[in-house]
Amino acid sequence: MNDCRKVDMLPHTPVADAKERKRALDVTCSFIVQAPAGSGKTELITQRYLSLLARVKQPEEILAITFTRKAVGEMKERIISHLHLAAKGIPPAEQHKLDTYHLACQALQNSQRQGWQLLDHPARLSIQTIDSLCASLGRQIPYFSRLGGQPEITSSPRLLYQKAARKTLTEYHDPSVQCLHIYLSHQYGLAEELLLGMLATREQWLPQIIGCQQHGRFVLERALQGLVQKALDTLQKHISEDEVRELRILGAYASSYLPNNSLPGQIDWDAFPEFTVNHQKCWQGLRELLLTQEGGWRKQITVHQGFPPKSKGGNPEYKTRMLNLLANLSERKDEELLRRSLQLVATVPVKYSDNHWDIIEAIIDVLLKAVANLWITFQSHGCVDYSQMSLSALEALGEEDTPTDLALALDNRISHVLIDEFQDTSISQYLLLRRLTSGWQEGDGRTFFAVGDPMQSIYRFRQAEVGLFLRARQNGIGNLHLNPLRLQVNFRSQASVVKWINSLLSKIFPLTEDTLSGAITYAPSKAFHRTVNDNCVRVNLSQDSDEETQKIINEIIRLQQDDPSGTIAILARNRNHLVDIIRSLKRNDIPFSALEMESLALSPVILDLITITRALTHEGDSIAWLSLLRAPWSGLCLADLQLLRHKENTTLWQALHDNQTLSLLSPDGQARVQRLLLVLKEAELQRGRLPLSRWVEGMWRQLGGPAFCKHSGELDDAATFFTLLTQIETEDFISVQRIEELVHEHYCAVDPEADKSLQLMTIHKAKGLEFDHVLIPGLARQPRSSSAPLLTWLELTQLETPSILLAMKKRGRSQTETPLFDYLWDIEKQCIENESRRLLYVACTRTRKSLGLFATLGVDRNSSSLNAQWKKPPTSSLMNFLWPHIKSTVPLPSNKEAPEATENRIDSPPKLQRVPASWVVPVVAACPLLLPSSAVSDSLSHEPPLYEWAGETARQTGILFHEWIRRLGEQDLLTSINFVNQLTHLQERIYWSTYHHGVASEHRNSIVERVIKGIMNMIEDPDGHWILRSDHHDSHWELALSGSIGDKEPRHIVIDRTFVDETDTRWVIDYKTGYHEGSGLTEFINSEIERYRPQLQLYANAFASLENRLIKKALYFPFHKKMIEVT
Asked: Per the UniProt entry, what are the Gene Ontology biological process annotations, in alphabetical order (predicted)?
């Protein structure tokens, strides 16, 4: 049995890179730090931040930037917690924590000297996401005034892109649009997809396209020339004088045997071709001598290259010398760089052909028109995307040589910039950082500190350009030189894991770095922890996918037995690689948690909601109506369904309203149909009066849909569905296909009660996480194939001025692409391949204790060997990188034939799940979060105050107010600038929900008006607005908790509002919707405090058992705009 005990660190092990870590804290210098997986980069950037806090005059001088809200929260929490520990004055025992503790003490002392009171005002710590920074910069200029105010940011902008694209493509009178349509043979769908893809990434190309609007061809061809010249500079640097001399002699010899019109034959070999673009044709001839058609070094040379045999007058000595030269070039460490540079110089034209330029010019014009139409679409919808926020931030700062007033103001305020995950920076974000620091000079006391790991750059689909990390390391950023540092120590994995990763993965990474193709060299790590188990990495090969899945299940069972408290992660390249595993886990009753694995379209609650939507919008959709009648809330048996369908040319909707047909049903069926008809009648009254999302939600709730959700995650799925419906309500025509398309783009929420000890996710989702054991399935499976796009483009980050290249795919019968398109597409494939290497590195480095690799390979039974052999993995699979280095170490496949596919097992038909005919819709509570028994004190015996003292109208007002504050708060709508503009829609939604709560028709309008009044009071009141803010830490709305005392039944409590404020204080707040008119308000409030004090104390006791921080309790009276702290 393997030893899976806790990973121990080596006794008294000094940190091998301690010198680099210490140097990184020199706040007078700028650095770029490469921090491999597990090297503690988050702790390093925290220490750097604390070091700066100890020296600056104002905390706002320091700007820390990262990429996710989660990372921002973690960084803030780390810094604040270190400051709190320093305030307590109790130094930790661990050395690495002690270093941070001393830095925090110095920062706290400076805070006290300067009077910052950071512990009371931690909001002064400027730590933001890059998107948040862009938004804040955009808000400080009148950039969005054309939209009528500050817009919201949508995270699902595809519909907006589609509208802008369609508006552009229907401008048939425009010559550029006509040219594009003709070029694409009037395939409208292709043109639309082309514009959709380009609009989504416009922050990458729009600044360059606008820059070349007046002299487009000149600017783009200058970029081509710059690219070729860069490659020529590389060749000049790497080709020695001896090699130049030998090439001149051998080239002259070869050209004497070649026709004069051949490329080598046209070269004047007396003078070696100059390293300039003017001699590109000569370099094309040299490439023909040295490289094959596919771009590899020649291994053989013949008369076709100018080296005839001796029998035909050739000199064997020259042929031998040429073969030796080729061998030397192909065996050099920089051979790949040489080969690609020569290929680039010889194949990439420095000018566009006239025909190619005509279509490029047309597409540029169409793209700019699409951007203009997108702006109009943003204006009509009152929202923008993240790309627009990036562009607004760039405009807010101006150009580097012409900064705006805002840029100058920030230049005076910000003295230090820290950025985490720098390898994930996009070109627009890089430009933003350059403009932010454009006025900085070396030695002026201002510093730039970037931390990242180019080996973990795996977000190219989000426009991350790993080449920017390499460029910054080599050339600095703006006027600042960045001192390069590299961390080496891995604090995560045991030594044997680190050794295996170093040994294997170092062989699959490129030997030389290349900013263009994203080639990154491997940086080895040193283990901080000792080896616990030498057999820590297992390679498991299978002959079919079922065998692979079973091996994974067996490994999970083994690990859970050997290491019961250990965490296991199954990390896959694609979600579909986990489908069979999930099915097998369920079949074996192994609990697990899957993050964004299951498509929303497969969720039972979403299937129900799509059924309702289809039925409401199309009375003739028989499949939808049959599903509605068969669903658990109706539960008609098959016999009754058949009776409803017995009349020809009659829809189910008509049959449900035909008394004669209904009389044929069984008594049980009649009762079920009558209950459904009551809901349908109410829904029919709302047809055309409510937006689609509210109409569907209302019917779902009246049918009792929430009662059939198995966990709170399904309620979240339902909320997502209603949000998606809201997004498409403004479309001219809403089809079922459109709804299903949107649903397929989203994923089910995670069940909060799922077992977190076994987690399934994609490798991308696992980045930044760590687990005791990691299993990687499907290593031999291929990703989705990438077909060449219609338009390919490339940002040239390695040039002094970032530029762009564009090329269109040829249309028509000719399959021969332009050399530029071929080159750009080849670079794209190289980028994909290099990122795949990094993806494998990320997956393998998530583990602390053990790593399991799983793949299904074909078997070659016709091999000349006596034993069967594994077939080579597919070229695009991750196993293809590992295979040359592990194939000799894995067991050979068995000689027995793979089992023939068996017939699918025929499962028994599912049983009809339905509620009794007498069932009534319950009021569904939130799914409770279970607390440990120790968290619940005897104060649970206090009964929570009820609404009996109030009238029925007041009780219903209170219920609806609580419900809608929660729903709006969870969607982050209460503090939105556009909230007031949506009051009419909100009023309609609240009105619809009164049906669900049984409000009498004569009281509906007054109660809705009252609820709206309470919500607006809270928004307008400073204390109320503070309570509603969504940026509080650990924020919850109507948090449900459960606990028990001894053997008593569990008791449930629901806390209206709770969060942790800037001072690290937990607030527990209850809303009280009572209203007191006339005098005696103080007495009324005091009586409410006494009434609810035990309840608030109960809430506080629950939190006190879970966390160690100050807890404050308060009541908030929305109809009096008063917040009262209860002590």
From this structure: recombinational repair
